[in-house]
Design a protein that fits this description.
Helix content: 25-40%
Radius of gyration: 19 Å
Strand order of the largest sheet: 3-2-1-4-7-6-8
Number of strands: 13
Structural class: alpha/beta
Largest sheet: 7 strands, mixed
Distance between the termini: 33 Å
Length: about 290
Amino acid sequence: MSARSPSILILIPYFGQWPFWLPLFLKSCEFNADINWLLVGDCGEPAGRPDNVQYRYCAFTEYCDQVSEQLGLAFRPQSPYKLCDLKPVFGFIHKEEAQGYDFWGFGDLDLVYGDLRSYFTEKKLHRYDFLSTHARRVSGHLCLLRNNERMRNLFWQIPNFRERIQDQQHHALDEGGFSRLFLKRKNFPEPLFRLVGLFNPLRRAAEFREAFSTPNGRVPWVDGTHEFPDHWQWEKGRLTNNKMLGMSFPYFHFLGWKRRFNEYPELTEPSWISALAASEKWKMDSRGFHQT
């Protein structure tokens, strides 16, 4: 556990097979040495796992049994993708493992981290109970919640949670249903939206701020256009891109690019990725990961 306060544990259950870029993900975790991660799943002990990333083996059916028992319902999804609906519940499910941490978070593996503490500052962590890196919805790929009873149990307030978590459909409860607890009337014009938020205690205790870390999607870039960076660069924990030279970012979520990565098999070779991770610097674009 990190000795730095406020302390943070990011929880990521993952089942199936580790993505080929996992060594790069782990290296970016390593450079955030005062933040901790817990990976739970059946993929096996990750090679090159740094000290601040813990791994616990658990078969998918066993994990679903644990969820069912703790929630008092039948969680029997056919696909691990259903776990996206479960993200707001992680702090409740993993209460014992998160014990002693000030914050718990949920996230994804299709990203690399920059300097997270320079973004999630001590001032923010003392001020807010909930931090999302999107302005108008919960960021399912990285979100932090204060580790208290209120935030661990907040998911129960999602409308029809029991019914929706037990069926086979993916409801995007992390970014949809959970968001609506904080952002009521989010389609109102900005002045009215802010006014409504003043009367919502959850909204007042939360930060929803666009970090521009998931480009190539519906959210415009920093300048209001859809002209996104062509490439990003990571070096020893610092993350930049070619559109905002000199500015560093908390993470880069390459959701918009990863579907094309397998078109370039030479850039997915384990030896290639391991060498990039060991070099502690690399470049990322729509084709994959490269030497700088």
